[in-house]
Amino acid sequence: MAVGLLAVAAAGVAVGLHPPIAPLSALPRAFDPGLVAQGESLAHIGNCVGCHTADGGRPFAGGRALSTPFGTVFATNITPHPETGIGLWSREAFGRAMREGVDRNGDHLYPAFPYDHFTRASDGDLDALYAFIMTRSPMQAATPANQMEEPFGFRPLIALWNLLYLEKGPLPEDQSKPAEWNRGRELVEGLAHCGSCHTPRNALGGQQRDRAFDGAWIEGWYAPPLNAKSRAVQPWTVDELFAYLRSGLSKTHAAAAGPMGRVTRALAQAREDEVRAMSVYLASLMADAPAARAAPHAKENAVDSTHAEAAALFAGACAVCHESGAPMMLEGRPPLAWGTPLHESASHNTIQVVLHGLRPPAGRSGPTMPAFADTLSDRQIADIVAYLRARYTDKPPWPDLAQSVAQIRRERGE
Amino acid sequence: MITLTVNGTTHQVQAEPDTPLLYVLRNDLALNGAKFGCGLGQCGACTVMVDDKPVFSCLLPIAALSDRKVRTIESLGTPDKPGALPAAFEAEQAAQCGYCIAGMIMRAQALLERNNRPTEAELRAHLAPNLCRCGTHMRILRAVRRAAAAMGGGVRDAAEARL
Fold first, then answer.
1. A210: which residues sit within 8 A by CB, 6+ positions away?
2. Same domain, B27 and B66
């Protein structure tokens, strides 16, 4: 066993040797303003601040803890600070990190940094992103040391991971498809790294390419399928995707919640034509989903007396917004029957929204819903969720709802 | 008939199970401190405590209460003998129109009972769900800090100490 590990490690060292790239002598500042603006849009598409900013911290200054099955990785400071950031990184060093996951010194970065997606970015996009990053304010902020489980603290092992899971470089253009589709694919598969959440991973954390966009778990939420497996009731058209990605609300599906809420708030600040191109590509991935092929069904079912108590709770706590004819519904919100979470095989997203509601951050607008975690017991939330499933879907009841509510509360430290 | 325990007293109330707690408090029990603001769980004027948690009473059907204990601002003293929070709100003149204040006080009460030495960030995050359209937030924060001190604690890094 030990010999085997040593051999693996030696092989890892052999394939994983990368020379340092010389530091710059001064921070590069002379960039075309148009290139910087394009880089800013791309930084929103990649939601760089989402990971590279600690709670209450300066944007891009790093320090956020990302927990993985292999240990806790701290997002680095990517402001152009010469000592604690990437201020001395040349464009070549930046490009190598984005395409190969190797830092300026030649050390491997952990794949929590999604270079397996960023590798798809074009040279032009990397030029723009580099120009944007290097013109931010340098922030002095040392990144805390990672806390990895053994043996994952040994970075050369990542070279093996890269052999298995890193397919380097941009995808060749698909000549049979329009330019907008190709651009959308470049962004979705690359800088937007949608698959990081929506594609399942194997035991080593590699993306399962044969199950691309099949849906996966992230931070206690289920990131739904973005392909023919989508359980959406209404079709995801280009226009609906565009509205959802830009505003966090689709009037025929649902509001963005959980990690996706943060993504839509970033995309709201990206260039419209870029988000539209992403929508074109994503819509093509879901072109064979049931909702795209069949007439939408939004029928409601009569519920029996076993749901009487939940019906009273719904009437007193939910109906004032969600019942047809409620003021919110008259503003064009999706009926609950169209809400994809109610149709998924897992109840978690529905429970998460009931427990914690939706609240845009201070100063930002977006879909809003009060949290019921302090108002209703596990049993009551389970009963309401069972009632919603029975009334608004044709799917079988979810099992063990009260346990799921308790588990989600525990995971959130409540 | 539904049995409710409010401010330590048990009441028998004739009301439908889906009736919001706020309506029962105001219409049946004549406890008019909690206010109807939006009726949608967006503003917090109706905030009361259930057990030890602050809740929007406009969105809490009485069927959900069973044997949980409700507390309203009327439980925090009288005009002659106000509790720590009402006294602090008066001392800081934290009310302008006053419509949000009962809810603000009950939300703050829940925090200070659990932790009377919150950080300024904890205090602000805790009060965030409750809105004040007059803009008296800075006075409200001062009042809660004053009450925390009166309750033997204090806000650890009060924003004003840094100004």
1. none
2. yes
Q: What number of H helices and E strands is found in chain B?
A: 6, 5
Residues B46 and B99 in one domain: no
Q: What is the C-alpha to C-alpha distance for residues B122 and B107, in angstroms, rounded to an integer?
A: 13
Q: Which residues pair with B11 in a beta bridge?
A: B4
Instruction: Tokens for A217, please give them.
Output: 């778990």
Closest CB to A312: pick one of B18, B56, B59: B18
The interface pTM score, or ipTM, of the predicted complex is 0.92
Are A27 and A140 in the same domain? yes
What is the DSSP secondary structure assignment for residue A23, as one 8-state letter?
Answer: P
Torsions phi, psi for A254 (to 5 deg): -170, 180
What pLDDT score does B150 carry?
A: 96
By Cβ distance, the residue of B17, B55, B128 closest to A312 is B17
CA distances from A296 to A243, A289, A333, B42, B85 (A): 19, 12, 16, 32, 54
> Are the CB atoms for A134 and A34 separated by under 8 Å?
no
A368 Cβ under 8 Å from any chain B Cβ? yes
CB contacts < 8 Å between A and B, how many?
Answer: 60
Task: Write down the pLDDT at residue A361.
Answer: 80
Interface contact A316-B20, CB threshold 8 A: yes
Average pLDDT over residues A221-244: 96
The mean pLDDT of chain A is 92
Using the Cβ of B20 and the Cβ atoms of chain A, whether some distance falls under 8 Å is answered with: yes
**Shared domain check, A118 and A36:** yes
A56–B contact, CB cutoff 8 A: yes
Judge if B83 and B59 occupy the same domain: no
Summarize the confidence of residues B111-119 as an average pLDDT: 96
Q: What angle do CA A244, A324, B62 make, to 5 degrees?
A: 110
**What pTM was estimated for this model as a whole?**
0.91
Cα(A107)–Cα(A109) distance, integer angstroms: 6
In the block, residue with structure tokens 């409710």: B4
To which H or E segment does residue B12 belong?
strand B9-13
The answer to whether the beta carbons of residues A234 and A296 sit under 8 Å apart is yes
